[in-house]
Amino acid sequence: MKKIFKCLKISFVLLVLTTTFARAQDITAVDFKGEVIGKVIPDGTAINFNNEIIGQLTADGFLVNGKGNIVGGIVPQGFAVSNDHKYLGKVSNDGTVRLPSGKVAGKVLPNGLVVDEFYEVVGSVLSTGIVYNDLGNAVGRLAGNGSYINFEGQNVGFVSPSGYAYRQTESGYALDGKLISAKMVISLEGDFVGSVAPGGQVVDFDGNVIGKLHANGYVYNNSGKIIGRTVKSAYAFDNKGTYLGFVSYNGEVLNKGKTVAKLRADNRVSDLKGQVIGFIVDMNAVALTMEGKYLGYVAPNGEVLKGSEIVGKVGARGKVYTNQGRVIGQVAERGPVFDHLGNVKAEAMPNGQVVSFAGSVLGFMKGADAFDNVGFMMGRVMLPALVINSTQDILGLTGVGSDFVLGSQKLKVSPLGYVWTADNALAGSLLPLSPIYTEDGDLLGYVDVNGGVSALGFENLKLKNNGTVVDAQNDIKARQIDPLWVLLNDKTKSVDLSQTNVVYDSEGNLQAKIVPEYVLVGGGKNTLMPVIGQAGSLGSIILGLRGDMVGYVNENGVIFNGSKEVGSIVSDEIALSKKNAYIGASVPLRPVVNANCGVLGVVSTRGEARSGRDNVLGQVIVNGQIISEVGQSIGHIALNGPVYDFGGAMIGVANEKGQVLDDDRQIVGCLDARGRLYEDGVIFKGHLVQNDMVMSFENNVIGRINFKNQFINNEGEIAGYLTPDGTVVNEKNKKLGVIFKYKVAFDRDNNFVGYVTPDGQAINDKDEIFGLVTNDGLIVSKNKAVGYALYDLYVYDERGNAIGYLTKNGTVMDFVGQNIGKADRGFLVSREGRLIGRGNRDYFVRDKQNNVLGEILLTNKVVATDGNIIATVSNSGDVRDDTGKMLGVAKPLQYYVIKEGQAPAWAKQPDSPIQVEPIETPEPVGEEPLKSHSQEVIGIVVSPEGRYLGDLLENGIIIDATGNEIGHEENGVALDISGNVIGSIESADKKEEKEIQKPKIETPSTMFLPPDAYGTSDQPTNLGPGGGHGPGERYDPMRSYVLSQAQNARVGDVRVGKLTSNVKTSSFDGYQDNWDNSNFVVSSWRVDMSEMILADKPIPAVLARTIMEGSASSGVPITAIVERNVYAEDGRNIVIPAGSRVMGESGGGASGG
User: Fold this and answer.
1) Is the full-model pTM beyond 0.85?
2) 525-539, 641-655, 947-961: which has the minimum mean pLDDT?
3) Which domain holds residue 1055?
4) DSSP readout, 132-186?
């Protein structure tokens, strides 16, 4: 106690010295509006201008009134740095910040923020001090004029308003470290253990050196283990978001003068018995709206202030609420922003803006995620996380920068979860310091900052790279849960997520808890069933079927694109627009690999697959596959987690690359895109755990599969396990049912209906029950087959590669925009009558005892788990071996028969319905007859130029000519999915009057235009790049459409180096083929379309132009290449949009345009 008292006295003396008590002037006290409220006299008492006592000064410079509440603090001493990294001015004794001209630039709050007259944060106060790097070395200091000085006295860069030091290099700025001002140190458990001495050494109360301070604020001992951290000035909250108090200088949480809790080194708050009860929010934090607009700064009692106005209150997970409980914003993190490669791109400022090193505003923060001004996610700030390599070794805790050094090993980490070597190879992943939970959602323990797992009653627990926790025998015991959003099945109830996995209603009553499979169950003890809702994990983006960016999900399950709300999430596999139309699904930010688990790259924040050198490899689609610019599947998102064999035993755990490691951490195989493990590429050995519902062979949902591969029945009992072929068996090997993975529904005419719920209901776009889905994917209503379901909206070839996607009317488009056929019962039939693909469903055929015989291939052959062909499916569905012996019968949706040489009926006439026999099945809930899901066309959508865009359906959805949703109608105006105006609505009967109609789709044999179609005459055959003809080339929708079709048909003839349609220009490698017979060299240059000034009819792409000598005898045309190819004879003028850059040489002279 004497040692602690001694340290308290030393702390107070330090405070006295730093606040210049020795000077003749008084110390000014200000409140959280920046108003002067009095002064502090030498004994630490604060008095107002009437000499009345208003509070006492704490050791960390705050004023506490007689009730123990913070009411203000002393004026922070130092100078102010603005949000553009510029020196703003010195802090005056009255709390104002003055520019060198003497003009007041703002006033200082007790938390160090500088606000202007409108209480907008314009900067932060810094004091001179030492900059430390992530190795614990002092690398420089902050001078009194705001300069970042090395120890040779050279000005080498700047220090941001949040204290991060950047050194200028030839290529820009490099993050050196952070200015550390905190002095007191707490242990991992939150005990006050010492202070920081000059030079970064940490000493205990006896003066013994116990560790070394690093830039991330943590204290490391000589063995490299973390033993504590510096105390943060913060407000403390319990796990429900209720304000607890403020963190004092020694880590204690004070409320009304009493110690109620204490801060731990992992930034959690524990009660006085050591049980974790809450979290902290930095005292100088600010809050932004869900659209990224500034709300205010966080003040005592968890209030969000903007001057004297209380705009909200902080709750769990940093969300900001109104008094009525409505979420209006979120607390913003601050610090350097890193991209997927670990490159520092900008910094999140004290006001929540993202600012470049040159001082330009690039975007805004949403929690820890940084978004640019357009609304694209550009990176994330670095929060404490564990670095784990590919062999499951935990290497340590992240620092403030992306460089991670462990001995001779030098790595680079990205807060998006990627770990890179110096050679740009993937080397591991990051794990957050999230709590770990058992199978029934009960808290087991916490992951500490050294990577250990502390759990009562367990020893030697180890953490795997997907957050799974195993014991010494490698048995799975628990898993981390880090949820982003929650939704109840009962949509009438509104719930909110706490800081843990517990879900409360608006009254604070416990409603549910999240279990490791990210589903919601009841909040009671040992509750495993029933499932009452869904939850989503952090780190995902929403993409459309073709890989186009749809948006991002916030904590409420709302999908936003920029500042516009475009829809909501139903599950990780289903995202709906405001009109209940399917718009995409969730895709995780993970590595992408080839079939052999060779790393290709990672998923970027814009949904592209990018290599370690940041080259675009292709587009990620929602089934996790990677589509190249020529429309071919080249890889998939790596799957990780536990892998189980046919006996229900765990084979191993797949790492971040999809490699399966056994108990000895030896690689035993590689997971394919479906999560399957094959031996030698032939023998089916195991499957990644599948956390889905289970349906019996009688078509009843009977339970679910948990993260341990156990079958949990409806009574909440462990009643079996799942085999890799999707069969659920009990301990006596009795077959109970199959995994239920159906997600999307189609009617009998192959029209898209809607989505499938986990309990087997098919829901149409009117939010009505269309029917019930059976275990084999048939949709029935009133005991009649009304359609079928699939796992997703893609069609696949024999190897399981996606070759196209299903549109609303069953047409199948490939990934470069070609119509490749039509779906029939989920099978893809070309116009020539060939079966070329099939949808994703259960193709395992079973005998009468429900034993799996094998899997039906696209050729109707049946392959066993050992890779051998054992049977063939006949036209009637009989499964027979080579001797003709009947082994079983395939379900109608598992095989497809085409008579050789006969084109399908739909190639000449409308689609015919599915021919299936009625089956016995339960009817949907309710006796009302089901309403039709079909929609009538009530209008057409026309662009401002008069171009036909699509049809308006009666439910307000707008679809294009192929049936894809392109927007919706609001107040008579047509809006796209992002909410932008695209045109006007006209009645359907005006379609013929205006001659605005859907262009006829030309076949490949007739769509090409005659050679003179690109001349300079004014004849109708003169088709220009905009689709128009004649002088000025007025836009013509029919010709534009034909031009687009012609370009799509050319895709197959495009060579490497040329871009194809439907691919972002950023994927172009920047080079073109040379014409060796001409005396010039041509290279096209990448253009960012977002920076181009578009004219009336620009060529929307990168331009490559030949530079010719002499006359036109060279025969080389002027060419524009990217999303479409436009050819012209010599002499044709090509308009180059502003922002384009064309490079070439002709006779030694460079030229460009």
Assistant:
1) no
2) 947-961
3) 1050-1152
4) E-TTS-EEEEE-TTSEEE-TTS-EEEEE-TTSEEEEEETTEEEEEEEE----EEE
